[in-house]
């Protein structure tokens, strides 16, 4: 069970801050508040990128609810995973793909880390490639998080920065990735699941190597380019200069950060 957070109304707030009434809220409830705020950006007739994960799930549910109520119409969704595809269909969101809609109006998704410049780490749910393809094709990309996801620098949470790789000789690729960031104390681990430790397989049939850093990796653009130059790497989980808005739910309420 997630720890409860005591939420209290601030004595004053900026125009971009919305206070939450005093009540004990779980982390998931904070995610839901942020997700509902993000859905306020959605207008009838839009083509939407539908994110993946526990936070984005709330946004997809809300869009389906508003469609059912008739408050939104003519929405087309582009899902970022098979799981989101199934969820969106279940709540009545019409779906399409990037081949039919190469430019999207808006995408809504969560993030695993957000730095002060609105750079992100995503993909701990395993959908980073499709997320980056869809969200990179959007005019606006709204990110929804709770305050625990805010970091001073990417990798600063000490949790995984995922890299999607081809299964062929994955140990070779994982070792090369780890060696790239030796100065940052990097440790690379193949993502596994189940009691037998089977490799986690993405929707695209690939593996994921999770990189853990003890220090700041420095120039993010240089790190991105270096990772992508390795044969065997498909994509990484750093989303640089992509988010246009980040909505943060905290004990003080909702804060909206714009690029």
What is the annotated CATH architecture of the largest domain? 3-Layer(aba) Sandwich
Looking at the structure, the CATH topology of the largest domain is: Rossmann fold
Low-confidence stretches: 1-15
Q: Which overall shape is indicated by the principal axes computed on the Cα atoms?
A: globular
For the biggest β-sheet, the strand order reads 2-18-17-9-6-4-5
Oligomer: single chain
The first-to-last residue Cα distance is 34 Å
Q: SSE order, as H and E?
A: EEEHEHEHEEEHEEHEEEEHEEEE
Mean pLDDT, nearest integer?
Answer: 92
Strand content: 25-35%
Q: Give the % helix.
A: 25-40%
Q: If helices are DSSP runs of H or I spanning 4 or more residues, what is the number of helices? A: 6
Structural class: alpha+beta
CATH class of the largest domain: Alpha Beta
The number of E-state strands comes to 18
Organism: Prunus dulcis (Almond)
GO molecular function: ribose-5-phosphate isomerase activity
Enzyme class: isomerase
Family: Belongs to the ribose 5-phosphate isomerase family.
